[in-house]
Amino acid sequence: MFAETSLRLSLLLLAVRVADATCSLKISPSRLVVRFGDPASANCSTNMGSEGMGWESPVGGQGITEGVQWLTWRVRKLEKWDIQPMCFLSTDGNQCHEVLILTVYKDLDSIPDLWTNHTGPMVEDGWYHLFCDIESVAPAEDLVVKWYKGDTVVREETFEKILEKSPVNVTSTLVIRPDRDDDGRRYRCEAELRLGEEGPQPPPRVESRPLGITVHYPPSAVTGLEDTHVDVGSTVVLKCSASGNPPPQYRWSYHRAANVEVKEQGGASRLYLNGALGENTGTYICFVQNELGQVSGSARVTVNGAEAACPLELEPSELVVEYGKAVSVTCWARGAHAEISWRVSGRRIPHGTWGSDALRDWDVRPECVGDFEGLDPCTKYLDITVYKKPDAVTIGLVSHSGPVVAGKKYQLQCTVENVAPVQNLTVKWYREEDGATRAMKNETFSDSSRMPTSVSSILELIPSRNDNGCTYWCVAEQAFASMRKDPIETRSDLLSIVVHYAPIIKDSFPTKMPVFRDYAELLFCEAEGNPEPEVIWTFSNKSLGVGNITVTSENVGVYTCTAKNIVATTTKEVHIIFKEDYLPLIAGFVAVIVVVISVIFVFIYSIYYKNTKMGHYSLKNAKPNTQNGNVAQNGQDSGFPMKKLSQQNILA
Ligand SMILES: *[C@@H]1O[C@H](CO)[C@@H](O)[C@H](O)[C@H]1NC(C)=O
Ligand SMILES: *[C@@H]1O[C@H](CO)[C@@H](O)[C@H](O)[C@H]1NC(C)=O
Ligand SMILES: *[C@@H]1O[C@H](CO)[C@@H](O)[C@H](O)[C@H]1NC(C)=O
Ligand SMILES: *[C@@H]1O[C@H](CO)[C@@H](O)[C@H](O)[C@H]1NC(C)=O
Ligand SMILES: *[C@@H]1O[C@H](CO)[C@@H](O)[C@H](O)[C@H]1NC(C)=O
Ligand SMILES: *[C@@H]1O[C@H](CO)[C@@H](O)[C@H](O)[C@H]1NC(C)=O
Ligand SMILES: *[C@@H]1O[C@H](CO)[C@@H](O)[C@H](O)[C@H]1NC(C)=O
Question: Where is the Ig-like domain (predicted)?
Fold first, then answer.
């Protein structure tokens, strides 16, 4: 402004000098700064002889005064804003003049009003206007408004454009774009009139009251969250904090467990795991939010030495269902927020219950999937067994039909047709003997197929004759560990075994047998076998017929008993030996002896009796003891008439 004014004056003077180079006026002081209403004066002088001098001014003006070399312009009370007193000089009929540079100012008498047209808190990175109203400023072109942010000048505004000399109201504007660090910052404006050296010292200056601003901003990035590995049982603290204005709210997302506790203190939120458990393994997300935005951070907690838990529960947890029957299973999450769905045969069922009115899928493997807050998604597989009772359970002999032969090897086969699943099947073999049931064998199958299949079990059989007529059967038992009810049993028919066996000749006769003259012996051959054997006696290759035969001393030799059935032929021989019967001879001999002794006795007696009336005699008993000579041997009475046969002879 000074520059401009001086330039103008210089130009004017230049013009004057061009017009009249001889005009030499000096105004002292050349520049005058006067407060409105104050007295003012200036001395205009020349060193040349003049015809007259004067001051041209609305106030304090003086007409041509002759014969002076200086002339004073004086105002007692300067109450004009726009005034330019001019001193002029007349010499040699020419006039020249000089202008007094006069600034009329006014004290800044009211404090600037600092305000903003925004109401409420400011938001980070928004644009805002601050206004500084300065009332009644003169001259406005000398006004400088300084803006302070804290103690730093951020802007200086001048108003040279305002050419109005009288007081005006001036407004300075500051456009700001606050950031989060500006929250609570104080702005102020300062108005100063720069009136130069000639002006009052210090220059008039007023300062506004400070204006504090509030800046709202969204939460900053979350700090303090870190992935953590801990041991089972230890305590974990996850700290989540983020600065924001207004103070943000904290929210955690994690798998809810009983030992988790969240506390907010000092502008941060802390999550405590009191005694870490396996189920605490997972991701913990902290959300920090205020009205301007949300940020989040996460930390993964791994609890060492513990399995990560899948908190899905199935009801029922295990299922055994007959093919074609209805089924229904519910899945839910224990103590956790989860989105639950089922995956069954590639299909997704978006709710917690899976079921079917008639399950017709042998290989169904339903899995419940939980998408958790804070946990990895996990899957729970349904333990489901689809079963089917066998179409038939049959029992029979392998490549054989009809009766079996004792001592040979056979295979009994139990076939279970179309049963599922085979791995839960046991084929049990039973037999009945003497009215009691005996468990023979249990067979299980390792085939893990879930589809219906047919299986068979083999029971080795080497029958003995005692096994004839006994009964076998097998039972297909489907047992499921989880099933509360009894196992499902499917029984085969009864298989009655007919055992053919070789004839056995009963021990009804000895291998050697004597016959006596004129006596007949009855030989009895009996044999047991299946089928019933045909029993015949033969003598000298001649058949003697079936059953009992009679042998006499005329036909001694080897007699053969042959028992024969389809299994085998069994023979047994008996040697019939002729034995002379000495009994009648002995008896006759004894009788003769008795007679002879009797005759001798009578003779002696008669002699003795003639000599003496009394005397002695003796008698020897020669009768043989034959009472036990005819006992049956081998504890059995064959009924043969074997009188007077010594034991020694019989047991040859
Ligand atoms: C004005 O200036 C002249 C010349 O310098 C001087 O003699 C005179 O005393 C001055 N008058 C006043 C009132 O200062
Ligand atoms: C505040 O004033 C400025 C300048 O006049 C204007 O651009 C802005 O829209 C105003 N703001 C409000 C909130 O009135
Ligand atoms: C300046 O502002 C004051 C107060 O608002 C008002 O009274 C006055 O008339 C204004 N002056 C001018 C020149 O606008
Ligand atoms: C077969 O299993 C049953 C129990 O299911 C048992 O009582 C029986 O003794 C077993 N039989 C054999 C031959 O092992
Ligand atoms: C079926 O048998 C298998 C193998 O023995 C067993 O692991 C499974 O638990 C059984 N199924 C049921 C439902 O009991
Ligand atoms: C009986 O017949 C067999 C052959 O069939 C013969 O070897 C044997 O000598 C015969 N025995 C008698 C006593 O004839
Ligand atoms: C053979 O003799 C025995 C014993 O004397 C008798 O029990 C049986 O009935 C007889 N059998 C025949 C076929 O005559």
Answer: 112-207, 219-302, 390-496, 503-575
